[in-house]
Predict the structure.
Amino acid sequence: MSLKGVAFFLLKGVAELSKNATSLLKLASAVYFFQKNVGELMLCVGPSMLPTLSANGDVVIMEHFTPRFRELKRKDIVVAVSPLNPNMSVCKRVTGLEGDKLVVGQATAEAVFQIHPEIVERTEYGSFVRVPSGHVWLEGDNAINSTDSRQYGPVSVSLIRGRVLCRVLPLNAAGRVD
Amino acid sequence: MPFSSRFFRQLVRGVSYVPVVYVVHDLVGTIVPVRGASMQPTLNPGAAAGELPPGQVSGSQDVVLVSRLLRAVWNVRRGDIVVLRSPDAGPQKRLVKRVAALEGDRVYNHRTGKFVEVPPGHCWLVGDNRTVSRDSASHYGPVPLGLLEGRAVAVIWPPRRWQVLATSPSTGLWLDTRNSEGDQLPAKKQVLAKSATTK
C-alpha cells in the first residue's frame, strides 16, 4: 500500500468516526444509564459470602430497582457501598430490616455502641440491637470470614447500590442465588 | 393517522438524548434547589440576614450548582458544602449540609456536649443554622462518605443571590476540633488542616 493510500484511508476513517461520534456518545450514554439505573453485571470476589458465592469470583446480575422503588426483604443479597471506605463495595445478605430487634454477641454490641449507642440494649440475658429507620443489618454468609454489620453497625438503605438477581458465571453454577 | 412518522422519528431522536443528559448530571454536575432553613444564612436566608426571627422557615429558595467532577477521587475537605442522600429517609431524599469534620477527627457535638471520634470512611455534617438543622449533631451521628453525591459550588438562582459558596461558614462559627494530642486547633487551622488519615 502506498503512503498516499494509507493517508487517504486514515482520513476517511476519521471522517466516518466524526459522523458517528454523536451516535457513539448516545450509545455510550445509554449503556451508562442502563448500568446505573436498571442493572449491571458485577464480579463478586471474596470469602465472605461462602458457600453461596465462591471466593474466587462469581459474575452476578445486580438490579437497581429494589433499593429505590421496592422494599428490601430479609435474605436478599445486596451490593452496598462500604461504610468503611466509599471507594469499595461489599456484597452481603440482608438479615435485619428497620425496626427489627436482633440478638448480637458481646463484641458486636461493643462495636455498634461506639457508633450508635442509642440502638444497643445490654441486658443480663444478652445484647440486642434495634435496627433504626432507613437502615438494614447486613451479614455475610461466611460468618467467620466476613466484615459486616457486626463490625460497622447497621447500614443506611441509601448506601445500597442494588440487589443480586442471579449468577451468570461460572456457567455450571448459573441461575438463582439463594 | 394524527401523528406522522416524522413526528415519531423526532420523538425518538429527542428521547435518545436523555441518557446523555443523565451522564452529564452524574459525572459533571447538576442543579439542585435547596429547601429548608438548616443552612441559613448561607443558603435560603429568607428575610435579609440579621432580620430573620429564630426558627422561621425561609421564603426564598436558592438553587445551587453542584459539582460532581472527579467524584471517584474527590477529596472531601472540611468546610465543603455537600449534597448527600439521606441516611434515614431513603435514597430519594437529598440533604445539603456542611462538612465539619472528617475521619479521625474528634468533634464536639454541640447538642450533647460530648466529643465524638469520627470513624474511618465517615464524616461529620452540620448545617450552618445549628439550632434548627437535622444533621450529625442532632440525629445522624457520623455519616458514611458513600452517601455524598457532590459539592455545592455556587448559588445560581435567584439572580440577586448569585455567589460562589465559601468553604467556611459565613457566620464565623465553627465546631471545636482537636488534634490527636488533644490540643485545640486554632479556628483557621481547623478549616485547612488535613488529618493524617484523610486520603
Notes: Residues 5-15 of chain B form the longest helix (11 residues).
